[in-house]
Amino acid sequence: MRPIVLLSCGGSPSPTYQAGSAGPTRTADFGPIGRVGVKVEYVRAVEAGGGVPLLLPDCRDAAEIDRAIAAGDALLLTGGGDVAPSRYGEPAHPLTARIDPVRDAVEDQAVRAAMRRGLPMLGICRGIQVFNVVLGGTLIQDIPDHFAGAPVGEGGLVHAGTDHSVAVEGGSMLAGLWPGGQLIVNSRHHQAVGDLAGPLRATARAPDGIIEAVESTDGYPLLGLQCHPEDLWSERTEFLTPFKWLTEAAARRCR
Ligand code: MN
């Protein structure tokens, strides 16, 4: 049986969201009615990787998310807007944007519930950042600003739309998926992992030092990637391997 992979959903930003309000408060990206969902590329990548995709919407009853997690065999955290900096104890940078407190709460609960149940987890873009925040780390809120004070020639890469190389740490789980030590990834982010959470280690970095992958220090099946393999796998097979890894880890758990 193919394992069920739960995909966390994004929606329109909800600046007007009021806890407990009943009306349609999501207004921006998807029109006045508001929708939640995932980019179809995530669904196709999960299927191609051997899983059955099942959407996990950012419902408001985050406390009950454990019951939804129980329906799945693996968890995939998808890309999206910025995590509220209050979740890691920092004031918001002026360029921190698209905060969705509903999604933040649901993904926090989803990660904790998945770990209680031993579900393997893959986090992409925002997902790697959610892992780090939930497990106690911080984020770089704006990469260009982070490098703004660096000496000339030591500034950061352009991570917002320019492909770049990453160096993969030898001996890591990721090195098993991406042998060769180095590869070119896509890059569409203005935030990144900052202070690394204690249970995580960085297993790939961009040339400017920005963390591009994390996994767990204790062997828990968790992989965070800052790039977007879901957009690349159909042309470059090495980017299907994270999705295969997720479903194979889930299948091992199911047995
Ligand atoms: Mn990048």
Name a few traits of the molecule.
binds manganese (II) ion; 20% strand; two-stranded antiparallel ribbon; 255 residues; alpha/beta
Word description of this protein:
Strand 12 and strand 13 (about 220-225) form a beta hairpin. About 25% of the residues lie in helices and about 20% in strands. It starts with a strand and ends with a helix. The chain is globular and about 55 Å long. The protein is an alpha/beta fold. The strands form 3 sheets. A 9-stranded mixed sheet has the order 4-1-5-6-13-12-11-8-9, sandwiched between helices. A two-stranded antiparallel sheet has the order 2-3. The structure holds manganese (II) ion. Manganese (II) ion (MN) binds near residues 164 and 210.
**Terminus-to-terminus distance:** 10 Å
The low-confidence parts are 13-32
Mean pLDDT: 90
SS element count, helices: 7
Number of strands: 13
Alpha carbon gyration radius:
17 Å
Which structural class best describes the helix and strand composition? alpha/beta
Ions, cofactors, ligands: which are bound?
Answer: manganese (II) ion
